[in-house]
Each structure stands twice: as C-alpha cells, then as structure tokens.
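[Meeting: bench + compute handoff]

Bench side (C.D.) handed over the final construct sequence. Compute side (W.E.) agreed to return the predicted structure before the next meeting so the bench team could plan truncations. Sequence as handed over:
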Amino acid sequence: METQTEYVTAPPAGIILIEGNRYMRDADGRLVPEELVSAQDKLKDQTVRKIIEYAEKLSAEIARFRGHTFDDVTTLVDLLAEKYNTKLGGEKGNTTVRSIDGCLKVVVQVQDQLSFGEELQIAKHLVDGCISAWSTDARPEIRALVEHAFNVDQAGKINRSALFALRRLDIDDPQWRDAMKALGDAIQIIGSREYVRFYKRPNPRGRWEAITIDLAAA
C-alpha cells in the first residue's frame, strides 16, 4: 500500500498557526485569534506586509547593483593603470567614466566623513573675541556668517559648509588666524564613503540628466 505524502500549506504572512488555530500577534506581543481581528486591520496588515516584501527585495537588488558597479569601475581603473602605467580619475579615487558617444557617464566619488574635536570650542572663543574687539567695525555679513557657522541644528549637527566658508575669509588679524588654525586642527577625518551617480543626455552637447535611484527623488 502506497503512503501518500500530506503537504501543509504555509499560512499567509502575519498569521501564526498553533495546533490548527490561526492567530495574529498584536503590538503588545499577544496572540489574537484571527476571527477577532477586524477586516480593516487585516487589510492594513496585508498591505504593509506586501509593500515591505517588495521594498526588502528592491533594497537587496540595489545593494548588489551598487557593489557590482564599484567592482566594474575599479576593474576598469586597474586595467587602464596596468596598460598605460597611469590611473583614471582624480584625487581620492574620484572617477568619471563616459561612453564613446559622450551621452552616458558614471561618476564615482569618495567623500571624507568629518568630525570636529575640542579645538572647535577654542576656535569659537577666539572668533567671538575677534567680533568683540572689532565692535562696530565688524561687517554685519561676517557676524551673520559666524553665528551661522557655530550654530548647532536640531539634529545636533554643526554647519560644516559655513565653517569652511569662515576659513576662506581673508582677514588680516592675528587672533583670527589663530582661530582659523584651531578650526583647521579641529577637523578630523574619521572615514570615507563612496558614492556613485549616473547621468545621460540626448546628445554630446545636451544637458546632463541624473538617472535617479532614490525613492524620495524618483
């Protein structure tokens, strides 16, 4: 006599089977019998789970694509360096690769991740001293730039671009130069991050358009 194999169908996502009974787990961790869950809550649960499933797959696919892209560009750079005894790209590994027709390009950029040490407070103290010493001679735009540079935003982050703008000011004052030296010493490179961007244009003289792989900007 042949033995028949019984196949048990897995329950839908979000449904927990216990001794043949179907439950759904609520936000407090309690198991609620499925029949006690409203149709509205079931619909919301199914919709969210469906979207998240697609999102996780897409995220994994983008991660693989990003890795392959960096590998392809790195391989190209290595091959060119080996053949021509040179390297493609600019400082810190920044690289731009274009198609023959000039209508497509891939840009790989390496951006330093910065932090600021305790010298930043010394720089702020010195800059405040400069502003006080200059009194009415200090131009309003410089005062505004200083206040903007050392202001911490709601996320607790310092305005880096404004700080760098301070360093570009050509002010012949010993205390200001000391402040800018302290500011320079405060900058610490704690790592780097690679970015890759894609562009296309209709013809070699057309305007570059970014190929968006950003859900918020798509």
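W.E. noted at the follow-up: The CA atoms of residues 17 and 23 lie 6 Å apart. C.D. will use this when planning the next construct.
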